[in-house]
């Protein structure tokens, strides 16, 4: 069973998500929170696999709550998917840097929400369709001059190449086509790279690709 926690200050939003998720045979809703402090307490108590976290909440906002989760080594297995009203919400960029595995707009189709929950449990980053490259471009526009990254010394030449392609927004299938390998091989390279760098998921790998200078602004084409 995939254990999911809901954090949103709107009762009707939580009720809608709960009804959809609870109807699935492989998903269990383990709790709800109406603000960021409640969300942190809920996550620490119930240890869900995934938290659907609203960005704007009272007492403690979703960004701060996400940093509290991703910064706690004991909660390293918990994935956070941010919920926003608009695809390019001004806080989405900071959400990814804070360790969120991705984000969804609140009017997402039900099937997409269910795919999202299952995807992040599998270690994939989740971004609304068509947003990935725009989000990366935003990161590129805001990124500072990267410092030398000794951590990349841990990677093989092929792993660096794969990490750069992830940083440019390519999916495993696109990477496979670019490198003329199978999608499974591409996925294996991505997984090994994340393990070596201690990346929580694909979204964090994108951030590391820019912060290390492996991918630079203007490379998106």
UniProtKB/TrEMBL annotation:
InterPro entries: CheY-like_superfamily, NreC/VraR/RcsB-like_REC, Sig_transdc_resp-reg_C-effctor, Sig_transdc_resp-reg_receiver, Tscrpt_reg_LuxR_C, WalR-like. Pfam families: GerE (PF00196), Response_reg (PF00072). The modification 4-aspartylphosphate is found at residue 54. Keywords: DNA-binding, Phosphoprotein, Transcription, Transcription regulation. Gene3D superfamilies: 3.40.50.2300. Residues 148-213 form the HTH luxR-type domain. Residues 3-121 form the Response regulatory domain. PANTHER family: TRANSCRIPTIONAL REGULATORY PROTEIN NARL-RELATED, TWO-COMPONENT RESPONSE REGULATOR. This is Response regulator transcription factor. It comes from Streptomyces endocoffeicus. The lineage of its organism: Bacteria, Bacillati, Actinomycetota, Actinomycetes, Kitasatosporales.
């Amino acid at each position: 069973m995939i254990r999911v926690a809901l954090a949103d200050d709107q009762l009707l939003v939580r009720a809608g998500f709960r009804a959809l998720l609870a109807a699935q045979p492989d998903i269990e809703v383990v709790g709800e929170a109406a603000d960021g402090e409640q969300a942190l307490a809920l996550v620490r108590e119930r240890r869900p696999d995934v938290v659907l976290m609203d960005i704007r909440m009272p007492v403690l906002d979703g960004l701060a709550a996400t940093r509290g989760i991703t910064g706690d080594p004991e909660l390293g297995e918990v994935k956070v998917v941010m919920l926003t009203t608009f695809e390019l919400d001004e806080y989405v960029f900071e959400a990814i840097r804070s360790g969120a595995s991705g984000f969804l707009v609140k009017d997402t189709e039900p099937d997409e929400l269910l795919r999202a929950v299952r995807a992040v449990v599998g270690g994939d980053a989740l971004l609304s369709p068509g947003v990935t490259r725009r989000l990366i471009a935003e990161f590129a526009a805001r990124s500072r001059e990267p410092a030398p990254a000794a951590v990349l010394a841990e990677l093989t030449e092929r792993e660096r190449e794969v990490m750069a392609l992830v940083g440019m927004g390519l999916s495993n299938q696109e990477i496979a086509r670019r490198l003329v390998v199978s999608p499974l091989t591409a996925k294996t390279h991505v997984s090994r790279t994340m393990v070596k760098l201690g990346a929580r998921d694909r979204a964090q790998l994108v951030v590391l690709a820019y912060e290390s200078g492996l991918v630079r602004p203007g490379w998106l084409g």
